[in-house]
Amino acid sequence: SKQKKMSVHVDFTPMVDMNMLLITFFMLCTSLSKPQTMELSMPSNDKNVNKDQQSEVKASKALTILLDKDNKLYYFAGQPDYKNFNSLKTLSYDAKNQNSIRSLLILRNQDAYSKIQLLKKDKIDLKISQDTFSARASRIKNGKNTPVVIIKATDGATYENLVDVLDEMQICNIGKYVIDTISAGDKLLMRNKESNGAVAQGQAN
Fold first, then answer.
1. What pLDDT shows up at residue 14?
2. Predicted confidence (pLDDT) at residue 194 exceeds the cutoff of 70
3. What is the pLDDT of residues 63-111, one digit of tens each?
4. Is 110 helix (H, G, I), strand (E, B) or coil?
5. Is the separation of the CB atoms in 92 and 99 below 8 Å?
6. What pLDDT was estimated at residue 41?
7. pLDDT at residue 12 above 80?
8. Which distant-in-sequence residues (6+ apart) come within 8 Å of 3 by Cβ?
9. 96 membership: H or E segment, kind and range
10. Looking at residue 90, what is its pLDDT?
């Protein structure tokens, strides 16, 4: 006798519904990445502050970091003194070194750094939310007494050097920093530092 073949039909309609439910579930449960933005500090609108006072405040808070070839790192505070190469100080990228860039930035930004460390502890202990932490940290970083860091690099400095310095800005909670073009005076100051003033004497002769 001949056997009858049975046709099997599988209905995939419930699978479509299940897939839609899974997609909706993951969309609602997944935290979307927030865009990374750079904080800008706007100038004061106080008209009672004259230009001399503004320049004095800027110079007292300014810290210029110079990146050179062979992983060399220098800095000077305030206005540059191109006639005195000893005003230029050396730094190290090694955080364990006492003369490191991290030690310098934390020292210059001690008050803001300490306050943000306390804020981080409160966030870890769930005493404050992430939004509250970000808002308070932003106000602390951009306070009046926080330093302004100017970063300048020569052609001999590497991309890694620049990235390392920018990382230190975040680690040390520096809120006001800028990457600027290095000047001829800055280059001369570094050459004089390396040669112990020989470049200046040669140019003078």
1. 77
2. yes
3. 999 999 999 999 999 888 888 888 999 999 999 888 999 999 999 999 9
4. helix
5. yes
6. 45
7. no
8. none
9. none
10. 94
Alpha-carbon torsion (81, 85, 91, 97), positive or negative: negative
Structure tokens at 115: 């306050």
Chain mean position to CA 11: 57
- Residue 196 to residue 186: CA distance in whole angstroms: 15
Q: Which residue has the tokens 């939004």?
A: 131
Amino acid at residue number 179: I
Q: What stretch of H or E contains 179?
A: strand 176-180
What are 61's two structure tokens?
A: 């808070």
- Burial tier of 77 (Cβ tally within 10 Å: 0-12, 13-18, 19+): middle
Q: Give me the phi and psi of 178, to 5 degrees please.
A: -145, 150
The one-letter code for the residue type at 185 is G
Q: Tokens 């052609």 belong to which residue?
A: 155
Question: What's the pLDDT at 100?
Answer: 95
Provide the residue count of the chain.
205
- pLDDT digits over 131-179, tens only? 999 999 999 998 888 999 999 999 999 999 999 999 999 999 999 999 9
In angstroms and rounded to an integer, the radius of gyration of the C-alpha atoms of the chain is 28
Query: CA 80, CA 85: separation in Å to the nearest integer?
Result: 10
Angle ∠(36,174,49) on CA atoms, nearest 5: 110
Q: In this structure, what token pair is assigned to residue 19? A: 């897939």
